[in-house]
């Protein structure tokens, strides 16, 4: 019988769905609150076949992933995938290098370079994002030079070191929605539209999820994007543009609790099935 | 199995835990709507605390 070690910090609705899916499949889950562990290789004991990282804290999840990999346990997603997906700049680089359509972007560390980079990207508006971060937090749509100066000065004075790396992305006008594709091992299992009148469409910020049919274009794009970042269990945020679909960001510890109902797909079940499949190959 | 109940640490309201509650689970107080976390879960009692504030590295 396979036992999955489930790494977590707080337990959200998503993790509860995974627990339920595992129960239905007779799969044992060992809950591991990483905040309560002592990751010492000399004393740590494990009794599970595979590890699933579901930490809401990216940094704690990464350390735990590296630890379990050092014990020769397979972690889903592995540390290489996490390292690419946790950082928007690294994700964009991987996508661009692999020829996957993605909005134009640049990384700079001060205001002068930011202004030049924006000219290279075709001018205002642009979006500035923290390279590390989620749920649409601290995204800024910059419409002119005055706003750019103000935002960058605030980040410089008030921000943590992460906030002083300025990831700039060409602003893409969306048709009141974007697409999120849930992708496992390169295969798109379901997709949702995230509707919002606001330019930030994250469901964490009030975006409403409805089912989106899986088109061949979504499926092919997601497959390529998955390969570009190393595969595993991913969700892709996709923009519909005049020149076709573009991958905006990729999440490596995806939240899905609001997406099972509109799609009718058990994403939690697919996650458990994938863990079982990988565990059986070990 | 009896439904566990615990006091909300913010408003003292009574919070009924789900049957399949887990330690570290996030739940909401039905009265004051505060996000709470189950910090201790024993057979007959549970302890709730205010859920941690969102940190810079939290997300997907």
Automatic annotation (TrEMBL), chain A:
PROSITE patterns for the chain: ATP_GRASP
Cofactor list: Mg(2+)
UniProt keywords, alphabetically: Amino-acid biosynthesis, ATP-binding, Ligase, Magnesium, Metal-binding, Nucleotide-binding
GO molecular function: ATP binding; coenzyme F420-2 alpha-glutamyl ligase activity; metal ion binding
CC per GO annotation: cytoplasm
Recorded coiled-coil stretches: none
Residues annotated as domain ATP-grasp: 92-276
Pfam family, one: RimK
GO process terms (BP): lysine biosynthetic process
UniProt-listed InterPro entries: ATP-grasp (IPR011761), ATP-grasp_RimK-type (IPR013651), ATP_grasp_subdomain_1 (IPR013815), LysX/ArgX_preATP_grasp (IPR054562), LysX_arch (IPR011870), PreATP-grasp_dom_sf (IPR016185), Rp_bS6_RimK/Lys_biosynth_LsyX (IPR004666)
Pathway membership: Amino-acid biosynthesis
Gene3D superfamilies xref list: 3.40.50.20, ATP-grasp fold, A domain, ATP-grasp fold, B domain
Family according to the record: Belongs to the RimK family. LysX subfamily.
Protein known as: Lysine biosynthesis enzyme LysX
Automatic annotation (TrEMBL), chain B:
Pfam families from the UniProt entry: Zn_ribbon_LysW
Entry superkingdom: Bacteria
Record-given protein name: Lysine biosynthesis protein LysW
